[in-house]
Design goal:
single chain, about 170 residues, mainly alpha, 6 helices, about 0% strand, globular
């Protein structure tokens, strides 16, 4: 509940920093998988980790655990605030929450930057992708639905190429 509406930073802190169940690189890889699955990313991450460590029962428990309390709170809030939807103060509060959510996403992205050290695509290419995404979506106002497949395909091809390079082979243990 402490990260209602923006739990990525909270989950990363818990799984990587406090409990040390995952390294930053493992978290970044699992987060990438969770993002391509349909549905909310954090729920997908819970599903992946629950299944990995405890099978189907773990996946169900992790998913239920991450959804139950926020769902109950959301239903309660929706019931209580249904009559305030046209109130200018309520609308302003929701706009403010949108800005906070954007800040949380940005902060979470910055916390994941150290994981790029070992990324096969390299920091420069990852930075170029981030800049290209920003320019396409924020400045050129291209639909994200078009930008993501194009840049995703470009990133996938670059990663495929880099994985084939002999100088990037994993060092022997």
């Amino acid at each position: 509940m402490q990260g209602f509406g923006g739990v990525l930073g909270v989950v990363q802190r818990e799984l990587v920093d406090k409990k040390r169940w995952l390294t930053l690189e493992e978290f970044a890889e699992d987060w990438a998988v969770a993002q391509v699955m349909p549905g909310p990313n954090i729920v997908n991450l819970a599903l992946v980790l629950g299944d990995r460590y405890f099978g189907v029962r773990g996946a169900i428990a992790a998913t239920a655990g991450i959804l139950s309390l926020p769902l109950l709170c959301l239903l309660l809030l929706a019931t209580l605030l249904a009559g305030f939807s046209e109130n200018p103060a309520a609308q302003g509060a929701l706009r403010g929450m949108g800005a906070v959510a954007a800040g949380l996403i940005g902060a979470s992205g910055l916390r994941l930057l150290p994981a790029l050290r070992r990324n096969v695509m390299g920091r420069a290419f990852c930075a170029a992708l981030a800049i290209a995404t920003f320019v396409a979506v924020a400045l050129l106002r291209l639909p994200l639905l078009w930008v993501m497949p194009v840049l995703g395909l470009l990133a996938g091809c670059w990663a495929w190429r880099q994985l084939g390079q002999p100088h990037l082979a994993a060092p022997a243990p």
